[in-house]
Amino acid sequence: MIQTIKKGLFLTLLLSSFSIQAQVKKGLKFVEKKQYDKAILAFEKDLSNPKEQAAAEFSLAQIYGNPKIAQADLEKGYNFANQALATAAKVDEATKKKLNERKMGLMSMRSLRDKIVVAALDKATKENTSAAYNDFLRIYKDLSKPQQQKAHNNRNQAAFNEAKAAKTSIAMEDFWRLYAESCVTYSPELYKIAEKELLEAYIRQNSWSSFTDFASRYPENVYVKDKDAAVKMQLSADKNTITSYRSFLEAYPTSPFAKIATDSIHSHTLQSANLENFDYFVRTFPNYPNNSDIWNGLYKLFCQTSTCPADFYKSYPNAPKNLK
User: Fold this and answer.
1) Which CATH number goes with the domain that contains 47?
2) What is the pTM for the complete model shown?
3) Enclosing domain of residue 303
4) Do 71 and 61 contact (CB within 8 A), yes or no?
């Protein structure tokens, strides 16, 4: 009687073992039929099976890491890929051989993890928000140097654009607090732009009379370090005329404030409807970015007293073509 019971128990355990080991194979058949929900359930049943755990984790990573299917969850896929790698590193040689034969070895696992990271970065790039990039950087740690550069630089740019769109000093100061250090490493050109925008946002909200307070808050800011130019810039800004900014540029042509003075002249020129101001600007700042508004304004003013377009292009041979 006891022997019969033992044989029955052994047979039950043996059948159970076969059933468990069959789950990965069953799941792979479901994958072939694109029945991913059923495949997931089958793979999950083998997560506690030491012989099939790595294969089950790898298979789940393949499903969740596939952005083309409805069941995709890249974070889950990435986590399962890492779990599969950790599990496969500990299995015996026979199981390693079996995994390799099924094209589920360590190299395949690393390759899958890399593909999931690429898909996740593409997803963050399409969303193009600081939150999306921050989530990416929080979750995915196995990044190549180009991926790190791209993710950090894009995040910094997105965060800067969001802060600038908010049009408040607080938003720009928050950007600076959170991302200035990252900009030094990954976005040096953006760092220079952000230094200027930080000052301008602060001045817009508090006026030039608050520059001393700004200097105490941001002593390393490039605009703070040039104290003489800062004082003269304050005086120019108090007068707030094209003449005052031109005088500043003549005295401090290489100062960091030169860009602010030039931008101020640009703004005043557009508002002036004065031919001489427009003429001065295009001749003095021929490489000013996004200069089409100045050229269009100059063309309209010039054509009020001269024959256009012939006379205009004789006077300004480097002007954009087809101005109206």
Assistant:
1) 1.25.40
2) 0.74
3) 275-324
4) no
pLDDT of residue 226: 82
Rounded Cα distance between 18 and 14, Å, is: 6
d(CA 53, CA 30): 18
Per the domain annotation, does 172 fall within a domain?
yes
Mean pLDDT of 148-171: 97
How high is the pLDDT of residue 50?
87
Tokens, residue 300 = 């309209």
Question: Phi and psi for 296 in degrees, rounded to 5?
Answer: -65, -40
Q: Is residue 9 part of a domain?
A: no
Distance CA 92, CA 90 (A): 7
Write the burial class of residue 87 (CB in 10 Å: 0-12 exposed, 13-18 middle, 19+ buried): buried
Between CA 185 and CA 71 the distance in angstroms is 37
As a whole number of Å, the end-to-end CA separation of the chain is 106
**What are the residues whose beta carbons fall under 8 Å from the beta carbon of 162, sequence distance 6 or more?**
129, 130, 171, 175
Strand residue runs (E) in 120-219: none
Give the containing element (helix H, strand E) for 55: helix 53-64
For 20, the enclosing helix (H) or strand (E) is helix 2-32
- CA 33, CA 269: separation in Å to the nearest integer? 68
C-beta atoms surrounding 197 within 10 Å: 17
Q: Which helix (H) or strand (E) holds 68?
A: none
Phi-psi label, residue 73: left if phi above 0, alpha if psi -120 to 50, beta otherwise: beta
Q: Distance between CA atoms of 173 and 175, rounded to whole angstroms?
A: 5
pLDDT surpassing 50 at residue 7: no
The per-residue pLDDT for range 258-314, each reduced to its tens digit, is 999 999 999 999 999 899 999 999 999 999 998 899 999 999 999 999 989 999 999
Going by C-alpha positions, the residue among 107, 91, 30 that lies closest to residue 63 is: 30
Which of 95, 127, 159 lies at the terminal end of a domain, its last residue?
127
- Is pLDDT at 6 greater than 70 in this prediction? no
